[in-house]
Design goal:
Helix 3 crosses helix 13, helix 3 runs antiparallel to helix 14 and helix 14 runs antiparallel to helix 15. The chain is mainly alpha-helical and 389 residues long. The protein is globular and about 55 Å long. 41% of the residues are buried. The chain contains 16 helices and six strands.
Amino acid sequence: MTGTFSTGVPVADLEVAPPPGAGGARPADTRTLPPGWGRPARLAVIVIGGLTVPFWAGDYWLSTFGFVLIAAIGALGLDVLTGRTGQISLGHAFFLAAGAYVGGWLGGNEHLTAAISIPLAGVAAGLLGLLTGPAALRLRGLYLGIVTIGLVYIGQYTVQTWTAFSGGSGGRSLPDPKFGSLNFANGFSIGSHLFDRNACYYYLAFLLLVLAMLYVHNIGRSRLGRDMTAVRDRELAAAVLGVNVARTKVRAFVISSALAGISGALYGSFIGFVNPQTWSLVLSIEYVIMIVVGGMGSLWGPLLGSVFVIGLPSLLQRVSGSLPFLSNGNNQGVISPTDAADIAFGVLLIVFLLLEPRGVMGLVHRIRAAAVKRSSGRPVPGINTGGSE
């Protein structure tokens, strides 16, 4: 699929070549890599850079990066449902909680290896998505969003009353993942370098996020991905063209919920202790902010959005002692880092919705298109360099 979505969201990782026979002389090719190697080279740099993070990042930032990657998995799932299929959901916390408690029960009570408990947590959340997905067949827009809010309150009531499974209102501890003799609580060493608990979670989240992104990328290139786009853009027209709208919506719910379950299993074990208040409506809204700020319908948008939502409070907390208006317990600042981050969320969300609905990825495409246009002297087909649509 080429071109631009009708919502203004460019196809992820679109490589657009100039049309043959375009007017004017063809500029000399200044690329240093063979044709077709640009994208693999960029991905290789990103992967290698990601793998080296535990070698230079301190405990504070390594923990933050781990939370960013874990959140990005769940945000990618929400983007499949909302950004790619157009189904509004404010109940993502419900599926995160399901994955956390199922993964914690299987790992702690049943003593299963994480290679089994984490995927099963995703399966359990996916089954819940299969049960709640049919609600999207009769509702849409604001009404569907309100129904999904109900899931959050149902989930909180369930974990409050099902004490044998969830620990009730007092919460429960969730064990660290184990892979055979490898226990994340103890870490592991390679040569003289010790990879602690934070490094173990970082690498596991990094691996699962890469696999999830590859999976979603392949979905986008498949018939299911095209059906999702059609349902999002014009549901009635999609049905007329032969798209099974009901099946497409339900499959989107299942995929979204399964990825949220995997993210929740990692998140719950990483923080080590959860209670019903952990899975509030605020958590669902934060995931919506991730995909809106990062860029809905794009492969990298959820990761960029999670960097913003998770990384900004950590950054403000880290520099709170250097900024006089931020309080850190030792000074009388005007505002706490958490409140400052909330204000920044609100302001930037409004700015992005008004000026760049495609989020950070929209800015990236604008900058890349402007750079290509400046270097070649002509616009790049298929990339919208004008105002927001």
